[in-house]
Amino acid sequence: MTFAPEWLALREIADAQARSTELADVVRETLVNRNPLTIRDLGCGTGSMGRWLAGRLGGVQHWVLHDRDPRLLGLAEAGMSAFENVTVETREGDLTSLKAADIAGADLVTCSALLDLLTTNEMNALAVACVEAHVPALFTLSVAGRIDIDPAEPLDAAFQDAFNAHQRRVVDGRRLLGPDAPAAAEEAFVAAGASVRTAQSPWRMHGDALQSEWLKGWVDAAVEQEPALASEASEYLRRRSTASVVVHHVDLLAIPGAA
């Protein structure tokens, strides 16, 4: 699955405001004696995670940006190269079969808004890879399957349930984790022997451009999953366009025992 650069640019400010600075502080303290740092960013998109985290970590850093979309990799590399004391390399390819050997030597593995696109087996394998390689993982903005809209109305639950079911759909024989990703990630890392901390990282929107684009995609996915909602979609979009919306996410920091 690939994402348009325009969508990634639109959400970058909301992502930056939502991610847990507390977990980022723990990462910095955990890696304080390591210089330079090597960080592998999985599903990097246009590099927003790096732009958010690099300044918080400080020191000399080398980022290895992974994505399957060469266009996004080019944008990410250009955006990250503006940082002083930061070097960048890119890796194009599939992220669902990484092994410990693929991330060995890294000081940190990161990702943002990625885990919902994995399967349970892929999530388990990624956790094992990080722990076996003794590399901490900071995984941010995993969708939690819960939306708060104010003022509320009865149709909110129907669209939310349909969207969550759509996120759990089967794609090319792979059943996606969708909103089960935060719990699956925590379970996988604990089972692999890591200590885990989580934090809430909600988007908060009120009638802005991000809300408009997000809401359209949310409703479209719900209707694709439950076609009976199609007759309600247009008026529902109109009513909800000026509401206050909170989209809940979870950030996770996993630290292997020997990291």
UniProtKB/TrEMBL annotation:
CDD domains: AdoMet_MTases
Start and end residues of each Methyltransferase domain: 41-127
Any one Gene Ontology BP term: methylation
InterPro entries attached to this UniProt entry: Methyltransf_25, SAM-dependent_MTases_sf
Top-level enzyme category: transferase
Keywords of this entry: Methyltransferase, Transferase
Gene Ontology molecular function terms on file: methyltransferase activity
Record-given protein name: Class I SAM-dependent methyltransferase
Organism: Lentzea sokolovensis
